[in-house]
Design goal:
The structure holds 2 protein chains of 2 kinds. By secondary structure, chain A is mostly beta strands. Chain A has 1 helix and 5 strands; from the N terminus they run ββαβββ. Chain A has a single domain, classed as Ubiquitin-like (UB roll) (Roll), CATH 3.10.20.30. A 5-stranded mixed beta sheet of chain A has the order 2-1-5-3-4, with no helix packed on it. The chains are: A mainly beta, B alpha/beta.
Chain lengths: ~70, ~270
């Protein structure tokens, strides 16, 4: 099935969970990433049980603490 | 307030823009922006806002200029090493534009001073380098209903969003709490490419100018990310203001400012 991850179209297996996507995308510090699917935040406790569907738009939002 | 001949000349490239014009330039001259952190983000933002003729610019920083700052903090020069950053920044801003009134605050923001610092300003620009400060600034701006440009940079990446309390999501809607100390690297630990502050800090200045003049669409409800290695910008549409947000929802659970623990290594040198 096709989904969009951080603006890029990807062909992924059916039934992929957010947790599996985080692993396959090599997300840095995965325990602190914020995830949105179709412009809704997914609670981190629900990454395991959130199954992605055809056409889903997934974004990863990262902590960036620098500035000075 | 009529423009002097010198002002007409100085701001001619603004005044000729149909979106800005003489009216917009007057709004800038009457505008008040507070920049928190006179570093990688704050330095370019302060330079552009001073050059643009933002009438009152406050700058907050408790540090002195260090040699390791000069790779990116372009408002300070080698001769400024050892000088208070706010003083060095004020001198450069006034050298560029004597029209600008620069208020300096040689202190770090904390729960006991931030409300007083932000109260007289129209727009707040976060150029700090740590999560406790970023959460504190967000919460204070939500409570005081002050527009805020939030940004962060690390290595070859940067991001920013504009927060207008009540109109769109806040920083805490995206990130509920600061990460534990040292869980996410800082620029001091991980490095940052100097021009990143220039890119993201200039975008923050752009948002301040747009807010003051009322021109265009602000980054409210979006997080704009920039990856210099891929040379890609990505504009992420954020979920609507969270009903469950601890600070900006209609029924907040955070109603007092919090001083999170500051990593010790951050206090010594930036």
């Amino acid at each position: 099935m096709n989904i969009t991850v951080a603006g890029e179209k990807k062909d992924v297996k059916e039934g992929l969970t957010v947790t599996e996507l985080i692993a396959s995308e090599n997300v840095e510090t995965p325990q602190y990433v914020t995830v949105s699917v179709n412009e809704e935040f997914v609670e981190s406790g629900e990454f395991d049980t959130t199954v992605l569907k055809e056409g889903d738009v997934v974004e990863f939002l990262y902590f960036m603490g620098g500035g000075r | 307030m009529a423009f002097t001949n010198e002002q007409l000349e100085r701001y001619s490239r603004h005044i000729i823009l149909k979106e800005i014009g003489a009216k917009g330039q007057k709004k800038l001259l009457n505008g008040k922006v507070l920049i928190i952190g006179a570093g990688g983000l704050g330095a370019p933002a302060a330079l552009y806002l001073a050059a643009a003729g933002v009438g009152t610019i406050g700058i907050v920083d408790a540090d002195v200029v260090d040699l390791s700052n000069l790779q990116r903090q372009v408002i300070h020069t080698t001769n400024d090493i050892g000088k208070r950053k706010v003083e060095s920044a004020r001198e450069t801003m006034n050298a560029i534009n004597p029209d600008v009134k620069v208020n300096t605050y040689h202190e770090f923001v904390a729960s006991d001073n931030i409300m007083d610092l932000i109260k007289d300003y129209d727009f707040i620009l976060d150029g700090t380098d740590n999560f406790p400060a970023k959460f504190l600034i967000n919460d204070a701006c939500v409570m005081a209903k002050k527009p805020l440009s939030h940004a962060g940079i690390i290595r070859f990446k940067g991001q920013l969003t504009t927060i207008i309390p009540g109109e769109g999501p806040c920083y805490r809607c995206i990130f509920k709490n600061p990460p534990p100390k040292d869980a996410v690297p800082t620029c001091k630990q991980a490095g940052v490419i100097g021009a990143m502050g220039g890119v993201i800090g200039s975008l923050q200045a752009m948002e301040a100018v747009k807010y003051l003049t009322g021109v265009g669409d602000l980054l409210v409800g979006y997080l704009l990310t920039y990856d210099a290695l891929k040379m890609e910008f990505h504009k992420i549409k954020l979920p609507a203001r969270g009903e469950g947000c601890a600070v900006c929802s209609d029924h907040p659970t955070i109603t007092e400012l919090i001083d999170y623990e500051q990593p010790a290594c951050e206090l010594k040198a930036h």
